[in-house]
UniProtKB/TrEMBL annotation:
This is UPF0223 family protein. Pfam families: UPF0223. It comes from Enterococcus hulanensis.
Length: 89
């Protein structure tokens, strides 16, 4: 795992922060080693319970990509299109 800060909102609860960080870890995993498609999409569904608006998701995506070079949007698109159990960016 890389050593950088995650884009989090200080108004989130500890549980919400954990949910977002777990999803961002899945994005990293998908880009670095490959990840189980179902686990990734379940993580995204949980992420969306915290980050409900498209605008907020885009903001977090931009901030995360700025520090990691990994795109949440492109990774989610690849997961949705994947026809195999695992996928890698």
């Amino acid at each position: 795992m890389a050593n950088y800060g995650y884009p989090i909102d200080e108004d989130w609860t500890h549980e919400e922060i954990t949910t977002v960080i777990n999803f961002l870890n899945l994005v990293e995993e998908a880009n670095e080693n490959g990840v189980d498609k179902e686990a990734f999409l379940n993580g995204y569904k949980k992420f969306k319970t915290v980050v409900k608006s498209i605008g907020e998701e885009k903001r977090i995506g931009r901030e995360f990509e700025a520090v990691s070079d990994y795109s949440i949007y492109r990774t989610v698109q690849k997961a949705k299109a994947a026809t195999t159990k695992r996928f890698k960016m």
